[in-house]
C-alpha cells in the first residue's frame, strides 16, 4: 500500500470523528465542510512528519483538534462550541431527537468550559482511554484522570443548579 | 442526565456518520494534490482592505506632499505616513504569526498554549491600533481637506473644538469599554495558559 492509499484509508476510518469535530468547532454547514477539508489538507501536508511514535489515530486526533481551534478563530467564532444540529449526519429521527434534546442541555454548560476542557471532553465522548487522551493532549495519564473528574463534577454541578 | 448517557449517544453518532457520510476518495485525492481553496477568511479580508486603503493614502499623501505648506501640516503628513506604513505591517505580521501552521502537529495542549501566546500578542497590538486608528482618521481628515479643498482646516477654531469633543468621547469609550474588552481577552488567555501549566 503506498503513502496516498494509506492516507485515504485512515481518513475513511476517521470520517465520523472528523464530522463530529467539525460540528464542535464550526457553525454553519458550509464552515463544517470547509473545516473537514482543511483538516484533511493539513493532515496530508503533515503526513510525512508522522514517525509512528504514537498510533496513527492519536496523531490524527491531535492534528484535527489543533486545526479546529485555528479554524474557529479564523471564522471569529470565539472558540465556543456551537449548537450541534445533527441533520447533516442523516441519522434516524428518533436518534436525532433524543440526542439533540440531551445535547441542548449540556451544550450551554460545555460553552462555559475552557478550551482545553472542551478538548478533553471531546476525547472523553469519543471513548478514548486515559492513555490515548494523554498522548493526544500531551499530559500525564494521571493528570487526565484528575482533569476529567473535575470537568465531570463541574458539568454535573452546573446542570443541577439549572 | 448523566455524561455516560450522552457519551453512548455520541458514539451512536459515530457509527451513523461513518455509514452515511462518506468522504469521496476523489475528494481526498484532490486535497492531497494541494487542490484546496483556503479562501479569504473574514479576518484576512478586513486586513486586506485595510492594507489597500493605507496604500492608497500613502501614495496620495506622497503625491500631494508639496501642497502641505505649513510646519504643522507637514508634521501631520509625516506622522500619518509613518502610521499608515507601520500599522498594517504590525497587524499583518501578528496575524500571520497567529495562524502559522507549524503548531498543528504539536500535542493539543502545547498547540493551545502557542496559540494563546500569539493571541495575547495580537490582542495587545489591537489595543494599541485602536487609538492610533482614531488619530489617523483625524489626521487624514486634515490632510484630505487640504488636498481636495485647498483649505487648511487646522486654522479653524471649529475644527479644534469638534476634534476635542470627539477625542474626549473617544477616550471615554476607549478606556471604559475597548481597553476593558482587550484586557479581558488577554486575562482569559493568561488564565488558560496558567491552567495548562
List keywords for this structure.
heterodimer, A: 162 residues, mainly alpha, Rna Polymerase Sigma Factor, Chain: A, 0% strand, B: 197 residues, 6 helices, 80% helix
Helical proportion of chain B, percent range: over 70%
Could you give a short account of the major beta sheet of chain B? none
Task: Tell me the structural class of chain B.
Answer: mainly alpha
CATH topology of the domain at 1-80 in chain A: Rna Polymerase Sigma Factor, Chain: A
SSE order of chain B, one letter for each helix or strand? HHHHHH
Number of helices of chain A: 7
Shape of chain B: elongated
Note the total helix count of chain B: 6
**Residue-averaged pLDDT of chain A:** 78
The CATH homologous superfamily name of the domain at 1-80 in chain A equals RNA polymerase sigma factor, region 2, helix turn helix motif
CATH architecture annotation name of the domain at 1-80 in chain A? Orthogonal Bundle
- What number of structural domains do the residues of chain B give? 1
Q: Give the oligomer, counting copies of the same chain as homo and different chains as hetero.
A: heterodimer
Describe the structure.
- The complex is a heterodimer of chains A (162) and B (197).
- With 162 residues, chain A is mainly alpha-helical.
- Chain A has a domain at 1-80: RNA polymerase sigma factor, region 2, helix turn helix motif (Rna Polymerase Sigma Factor, Chain: A, Orthogonal Bundle).
- Chain A has seven helices and no strands.
- Chain A has helices at 3-25, 29-46, 56-74, 93-110, 115-125, 130-137, 141-161.
- By secondary structure, chain B is mainly α.
- Chain B has one domain.
- Helices cover 80% and strands 0% of the residues of chain B.
- Chain B is elongated, with a radius of gyration of 25 Å.
- The model of chain B has no long low-confidence stretch (mean pLDDT 84).
- Classes of the chains: A mainly alpha (162), B mainly alpha (197).
- Chains A and B meet through helix 1, helix 2, helix 3, helix 4 and helix 5 of A and helix 1, helix 2, helix 3, helix 5 and helix 6 of B.
Amino acid at each position: 500500500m503506498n503513502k496516498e492509499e494509506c492516507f485515504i484509508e485512515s481518513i475513511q476510518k476517521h470520517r465520523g470523528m472528523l464530522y463530529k469535530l467539525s460540528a464542535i468547532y464550526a457553525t454553519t454547514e458550509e464552515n463544517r465542510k470547509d473545516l473537514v477539508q482543511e483538516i484533511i489538507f493539513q493532515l496530508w501536508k503533515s503526513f510525512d512528519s508522522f514517525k509512528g511514535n504514537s498510533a496513527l489515530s492519536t496523531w490524527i486526533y491531535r492534528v484535527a483538534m489543533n486545526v479546529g481551534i485555528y479554524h474557529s478563530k479564523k471564522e471569529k467564532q470565539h472558540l465556543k462550541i456551537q449548537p450541534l444540529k445533527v441533520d447533516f449526519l442523516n441519522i434516524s429521527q428518533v436518534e436525532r431527537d433524543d440526542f439533540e434534546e440531551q445535547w441542548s442541555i449540556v451544550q450551554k454548560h460545555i460553552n462555559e468550559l475552557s478550551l482545553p476542557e472542551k478538548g478533553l471532553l471531546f476525547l472523553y465522548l469519543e471513548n478514548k482511554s486515559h492513555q490515548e487522551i494523554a498522548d493526544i493532549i500531551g499530559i500525564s495519564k494521571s493528570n487526565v484522570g484528575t482533569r476529567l473528574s473535575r470537568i465531570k463534577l463541574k458539568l454535573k454541578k452546573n446542570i443541577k443548579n439549572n | 442526565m448523566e455524561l455516560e448517557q450522552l457519551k453512548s449517544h455520541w458514539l451512536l453518532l459515530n457509527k451513523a456518520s461513518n455509514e452515511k457520510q462518506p468522504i469521496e476518495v476523489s475528494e481526498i485525492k484532490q486535497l492531497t494534490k494541494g487542490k484546496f481553496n483556503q479562501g479569504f477568511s473574514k479576518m484576512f479580508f478586513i486586513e486586506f482592505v485595510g492594507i489597500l486603503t493605507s496604500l492608497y493614502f500613502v501614495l496620495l499623501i506622497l503625491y500631494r506632499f508639496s501642497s502641505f505648506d505649513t510646519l504643522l501640516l507637514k508634521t501631520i503628513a509625516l506622522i500619518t505616513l509613518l502610521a499608515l506604513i507601520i500599522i498594517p505591517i504590525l497587524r499583518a505580521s501578528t496575524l500571520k504569526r497567529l495562524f502559522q501552521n507549524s503548531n498543528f502537529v504539536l500535542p493539543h495542549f502545547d498547540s493551545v498554549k502557542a496559540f494563546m501566546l500569539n493571541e495575547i500578542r495580537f490582542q495587545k497590538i489591537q489595543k494599541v491600533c485602536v487609538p492610533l486608528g482614531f488619530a489617523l482618521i483625524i489626521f487624514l481628515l486634515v490632510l484630505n481637506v487640504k488636498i481636495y479643498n485647498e483649505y487648511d482646516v487646522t486654522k479653524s477654531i471649529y475644527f479644534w473644538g469638534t476634534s476635542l469633543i470627539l477625542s474626549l468621547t473617544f477616550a471615554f469609550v476607549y478606556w471604559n469599554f475597548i481597553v476593558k474588552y482587550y484586557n479581558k481577552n488577554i486575562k482569559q488567555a493568561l488564565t488558560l495558559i496558567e491552567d495548562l501549566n
